[in-house]
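Researcher: Next entry in the queue.
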Amino acid sequence: MVQFVSQKLLASTWMRALALDDPAAPLADRPDHGAAGAFAAWPGDTAHGLAKLGRKDLAAQLLSVVNDSASGGLWGQAMEIVADSRGQRVRVAEDGVSVREAIAGVAITEAVLSGLFDFEPTFRMASRTTDLPDSIHVPGVRTLTNINVRRSADRIR
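Model: Structure for this entry, 157 residues:
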């Protein structure tokens, strides 16, 4: 799966929903579900999956470039990959129907916190007997700092 995603779906600063050689690709003209682009949450979900499959390096690489696709403003429902004289680039989809205001940054956030740093806060953490660390370091990725999750007893005082 990792090989398929990295070789067939990741492109430029975004990804495709379908591989270019998929038999359905020529018939799938929606920029959020075809070979021309992907729904805005999929790069984050893909990075999360790559991290959970043991490829935090590929997840971090994907997460480090997807922000370039948002340079024109908020991500829409779909981002499409276009090629012109300047090379490959990504833009808010102009072909087909796309809800420009649909934001999928939550998927990126989950990929960073849960996928790269294995940080998955839950309500059950309130009953922990020890505080979480103030930072989490993952070799080859980076360090997550300013973690501010304390035991519920500490918040009540």
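Model: The chain has a mean pLDDT of 81.
Researcher: Noted, moving on.
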